[in-house]
Amino acid sequence: MIGIYGGTFDPVHYGHLRTALEVKELFGLTELRLIPCYQSPLKNSSQATPAQRLEMLQLAIAKEAGLVCDSRELDRAGRSYMVETLASLRAELPDFALVLFMGSDAFAQIESWYQWQRLFDYAHIVVMTRPNSKTPPLSEFLKNCLTNNKSELKTENNGKLFFQTVTQLDISATAIRALQAKGHSIRFLLPDNVIDYIERYKLYQS
Ligand code: ATP
């Protein structure tokens, strides 16, 4: 099983990294690919350049076996549509179960993603939720994909929706950028080598 974890990562932080590590272990993933977008179709442009966001991500996961950076969305440029990313991964990995991981905030908007129903033609979706959170109301399409049986993610290669509780740290890239712009400390919210990079390139200053 190969995991996919997309995001802007502007910058990557412990909210991303802790959940990535947990799902890698919980699902026994062969690898988890962190895929920075070039341009999110639903967000304003990033502040750091795509190349800088990729470099920060590489620094953050350098020592973590099983977490890998995949730069295909940066290579493709333009708007980063996840359905295109999954289609290209599926073409390279025809025999693997693919699992797209996303936070519940991202999942709340899933039906506004470009060709969202086709995501399930290529991968399963696992929504990373907070402990004790309720399953949100689902459309008929999503209800038909829903399973409570994790083992189905192994027996099928795509098409299932599953909710997984993870440790969610209340950290966001937005808050980190705001702290940095105010000249406040961002220590303990993201890895030190990423902070050094932010300082060196004077990122997120007002
Ligand atoms: P921003 O604040 O700039 O909107 P972000 O911190 O939410 O960014 P993204 O790169 O947009 O980070 O998020 C990528 C993925 O990581 C999404 O699926 C999102 O739900 C998830 N994610 C972001 N922050 C956390 C967190 N603290 N805990 C768990 N998952 C997170």
Structure overview:
The protein is of the alpha/beta class and about 210 residues long. It has one domain: HUPs (Rossmann fold, 3-Layer(aba) Sandwich), CATH 3.40.50. Helix content is about 35%, strand content about 15%. The chain has a six-stranded parallel sheet, sandwiched between helices. It is globular. The protein starts with a strand and ends in a 6-residue tail after the last helix. Bound molecules: adenosine-5'-triphosphate. Adenosine-5'-triphosphate binds near residues 8, 9 and 172.
Question: Helix and strand layout, with pairings?
Answer:
Layout: E1 2-7, H1 14-26, E2 31-36, H2 50-61, E3 67-69, H3 72-76, H4 82-92, E4 98-103, H5 104-107, H6 119-122, E5 124-129, H7 140-145, H8 152-155, E6 161-165, H9 173-181, H10 192-200
Helix pairs in contact: 2-10
Bound molecules: adenosine-5'-triphosphate.
Adenosine-5'-triphosphate is lined by residues 7-10, 15-16, 19, 102-103, 105-106, 128, 168-169, 171-174.
Protein traits:
alpha/beta; 206 residues; single chain; binds adenosine-5'-triphosphate
Q: What Rg, in angstroms, do the CA atoms define?
A: 17 Å
Output the helix-strand order. EHEHEHHEHHEHHEHH
Strand content: 15-25%
* CATH third-level topology: Rossmann fold
Q: Any idea of the CATH class?
A: Alpha Beta
The figure for the number of domains is: 1
CATH architecture: 3-Layer(aba) Sandwich
Helical fraction equals 25-40%
CATH homologous superfamily placement? HUPs
Number of helical elements:
10
Mean pLDDT: 96
